[in-house]
């Protein structure tokens, strides 16, 4: 790759300049300090992290960033500074300005709204705002999967516990950031979604999952985001890893995590950013100098040091010492430099950096962003349960009845008007100290009260009902006489909880009130109870004793305003719980009937290709989507013996396919060869609608004897993938399939064919049993083969053999006895065979060097084990003769994978083929 002008600047030959580009640093203060100026001017610092402690308003931020860039420009920096910011929305926003910067829901709140398009639009709006004040790198999206959702500190910052959903929303968010011109940074690699907190507060939280477990869950969104090619940077977490394959005290200091897992295994070529090296556990363990050198050795390109100037200087000294001692090579430094400079070139320029759009752009976008904010919050509000029909309050609470609001004392979110107001009032009481000074120096107790946020909630509720509201707080002191008196007065009680699973007093208080209300109801009193979780939705998600339970996913003013509108019926909440807890949406939308249309090649093939790419990005690599194309399902053009009829659910305006199902019919066999639904459209009955239409079409075929789930030809899905068979199998059971007696179908491979040799004694056994083999290539000699297959296999396998005998790059190996009786057959195909289009596992090599041994058909006899191994051996010999790198056996039945394992094959994919009688769907006849 040719170097850009910025990369070839002779200034970078000075190692001090190169080292400066490998550091990202911050400071405390809303104005430029001598220390941060010194770092930019004399230590050539190339990247700045801004936090809430630096930012007072949009106007001040734009001026501050412009001043930082001006200092760098005057100091001779060839490229502008990277200006990084955490602006995740929800509870994590470094910049807040109610006049110009909008508040949007958290990642989980956006996912609750159920729209990746909304995630994209919100992310683009957020990025547009922070870009206007000069930010060019946003620390997002969060790609963590909450594997252990109830006990993780990330909470609503993550999408949820489903890897595919986390991928879908993470990538949508990333695309929104990118399309607004910002560089993106996925976090927190390898995962903050399932941490064990052991030992003292100085110890690192630990990941205990194995690499295999991580690969199937936590790493899926990271892998998929990397695969898009649009992720510029990756934030390496500050956690430990302890499992059988890896042992690292600090992930960001481990080459196993950065160089091996992130770069070699997942193929990431962007900028790796370390966790802040000022964390106490790291300082105590290694010291800043040693930690900085280790971080670079591990493969990090940007080393984060948040704010302590003496520590920052120590880190610079440590890097220089590491180079002098030969621990860090110059090439290592310049590798990181190139990555950082390329990211800068993509997201900034001096023209852009020195002239931020500022308030003029923010003024133009603010009205539309406010409307988007309200829309997003309204769509995220979720009613998990309303067993007693208490919502809306306009229908369940009379005007003369009293409403009680009980709220916890919690720390308000930094990005809120309530916090800002509290700070300004506190500053006046303390001799006019600045808001920023109070932010830094105030005692913890001074900001623990969230009364400002919830007091405004109370006022809004009172205004909405045009009447009186009772409102008081509750604490760890539990249910007090004041609470009991108010509960006795009120006809309806709303309890707010915020992370009750981490604040046990909230859970205890709420359950106590629920029991009290139940007792009072038993005496004939009206005591309606509504619980609202304003942070983690898991507080009472599984506690059915709480009959009416709502979630808002954060407690900003905008969220609370949407909550009031939902409580009083201005809109019907449509949000749903995240990931595997997505119950509400299923209940609401399972009855939905989708318009199913017949698949049309010219109209739908491009949409099907895009759907397959989406599925490949959001599934495990062992599933066949990546090598599959629309034409993989199209057989009828060259095979009149097979009737095919495929169906789609699509968006007729955008031509996007939401779902696809493939059906085939030949010689009494009706089969479903594939059923796909876009991951973002699952759980809303698309699959059910497609399945019902497909089965109905098959039942109308004359002479139908059985219906099969899974197909050898095309062999995209020979059955239900075993690695997904739990939930998928139960889904098919619910739509009418008897799944109790599946047939196991496996695909296997010899990974290193050139060095493979036959098992000892195999050829001698074949000779002793007087079995001979030959290879035929045409239908002229194939009648006996097709008769044999028709006798011992299903009609789809017959069509597979018929196709192979007509293909120039395929053949059939026959096993025969001494009297020329046919004993068994197998298909053999060259690398890059036409058959690979329809059997994706043959088409997964980039260089097309996989040979195939497909669909061995051997009847059950005393010789069947030897016949199978002999046929496969002959096929492998053919593959080897054709210089194949691998030999693939496709469609090995039942326990034959064990016999082939003894020959050196390893299982790649396993499926369960299901066959039923048409009577299972008699209601559709």
From TrEMBL:
Gene3D superfamilies membership: 3.40.630.30, Glycoside hydrolase family 3 C-terminal domain, Glycoside hydrolase, family 3, N-terminal domain
Keywords annotated in UniProt: Glycoprotein, Glycosidase, Hydrolase
GO molecular function, one term: hydrolase activity, hydrolyzing O-glycosyl compounds
Hydrolase keyword on record: yes
Annotated InterPro entries: Acyl_CoA_acyltransferase, GH, Glyco_hydro_3_C_sf, Glyco_hydro_3_N, Glyco_hydro_3_N_sf, NagZ_Beta-hexosaminidase
Matches recorded under Pfam families: Glyco_hydro_3
PANTHER family referenced in this protein's UniProt entry, alphabetically: BETA-HEXOSAMINIDASE-RELATED (PTHR30480), PUTATIVE (AFU_ORTHOLOGUE AFUA_8G04060)-RELATED (PTHR30480:SF8)
This protein's name: Glycoside hydrolase family 3 N-terminal domain-containing protein
Domain Glycoside hydrolase family 3 N-terminal: 16-342
Source species: Neoarthrinium moseri
Biological process (GO), any one: carbohydrate metabolic process
NAD in keyword set: no
